[in-house]
Amino acid sequence: MADTIYSQLRQNLFTATKSLFPDNKVIIANTNAPEPNGPYVAIRIIRNIQVGTPYTDTLLTSASVMSTTTTHEVLVQFTFCSIDEENLNEAGDMVTFFEQSMETMPTREVFRVNNLSKVRVSPIRNVAYKRENVWTECFNIDVTFMFAVRTYQNMVGIDTVAIEDPLTGDIYTIPPNVDITP
Question: Which residues on adjacent β-strands are paired with residue 135?
Answer without folding.
Answer: 130
